[in-house]
Amino acid sequence: MSPISLRLSILSRRTVDLIAGRWFCATAVLAASIVLLILVFVVREASSALSDIGVVRFLTDDTWRPTAGAKASYGIIPMLAGSLFVTSGAVIVAGVPGVLSALLIRFYAPPFLATIHRRVIELLAGVPSVVFGFWGLVVLVPIINRLHPPGQSLLAGILILSLMILPTIALTAEAALRGVPASYSSAAAALGMGRWATIWNVSLPVARRGILAGFLLAATRAIGETMAVVMVCGNIVQVPDSLFAPVRTVTANIAMEMGDAQAEHRSALFLTGLALMVLVALFLIAAGGPRRSEVS
Amino acid sequence: MTRLRSAKIDRSVAVVCWVSAAAVCATFGCLLIEIIRAGYAEVSWEYLTSRPLDAGRAGGIGTVLVSTVLVLLVCLAVSIPVGVGAATWLSEFTTPGSRRARFVTGCVNLLASVPSIIFGLFGMVFFSQMLNLGISILSGGLTLACMVLPIVIQTTYSGLRSAAVELRLGAAALGLSRTSTLWYLLFPAATNGVVAGLLLSLGRAMAETAALLFTSGYATRMPESLLDSGRTLSVHIYDLAINVSGAESRAYASAFVLLILLLLVNLSTSMLAERWLRTRQTA
To answer: Which of A98, B16, B97, B111 could form a disulfide with A35, with the two C-beta atoms 3.0–4.6 Å apart?
Structure first.
């Protein structure tokens, strides 16, 4: 290679490096800006509702009737209550079997069956929410209807959501239990502790934080879930007085009304979206920061 | 005495674990069997290729499948280059733990926690209205791209990080440029991560409904361009189940097709990953 062409190739290599570096940096900036853009746009769209209607009316109006003209009311408390009831119910129902699944995989099942159970749970995590919702509508709701009409109810929402978030709870609990140092269980064995004594006194207390964080992540997933809830909850705006009463969640309300919402109504819907984001943020803070990924 | 009691508790906990796991698996099994049993009977070649008639009560899902594929292509065509680029920047062009890196990582993690209906709201305002793309396949695909971006970034990043330090040091010692190091050494090493990201994103995007309701819409005609509205398979299932009476069997069939497609995506993508790895190694 002649000196000149060598120099040229070094130069062009440097240019290539520079261009590549710029491109990678640009994509990183783009990726980081999306979440900020989302926040900006939701706040911007919600701002006219904030200034014209005011937070107070959102919290004190007793029902949601945004299209009633002069008599319009914008109370979001019933829907917030709906969202919170469905979410907490689902976490309670899915919590025990979720943690038990993790215990089974870690301690009780032979490796072969543990792997199979893990796979089944991972498969469950991959089922689309609209399929869960559809199954709930055609199978679960008629069963509940026989017990106590109308069937589309808080209970149906809780059961379907618990099935959807069970993988999150089970897999995070399993990971938390796997993170307990092996020396701890060896020490427990050396002290003559049996399997259950080790689990109860050593593994679960050490893994407690991880397991609880999994519960909160599952809660963020449940409160943000839309399709399954729209399909099985009945969507009547009310603070539910029993498990068999229909409810409408914040997410369901947006999905149902955004299609033909105008002006104030539309802005009010964005405000409920903002309220949803605040709730999710609170759960995340409680769980100790946003979803921990391998990046962090 | 306590030891005996502990052993007794241990046995009962074991039983409870098995029973609860069996209950979870049985419920899941019921769901799968129900969808497969009722869906399989309805699916035929004609169903897969003809367009929906009478709001979906008759006809097939041909145009719906075309729209689904187009939305997914737009989503991946945007999210893969941007996601891989951002992950590369995080992994190779900045110091991990620096303020800039922490900021980008924090934003991406936050993005991963945003509920899908919020993506729908954002896509409607930003892509459909502000960028004037309307209710279209393009808006829907771009909205989904935003949603799956964190998945692509996280998997690619961990793929790049898994490349041995020796690779980087050796490349530097040989005087390879940064770009060559990336192209010949690090990207091949990160292939697994990228493909895993592709697989997970495809699955997540295919399953998504809420983010598409107000971005790509409900149209059932054959899309003529990316600026046409077109409903995806998951939106089709939702519409049949909720808005159309007497279309339950058709909804079963669509749900069956969606489940099978998700399974196929997982299988074929992991096979592709294997083959790609082999060719890269022999080349």
So the answer is: B111
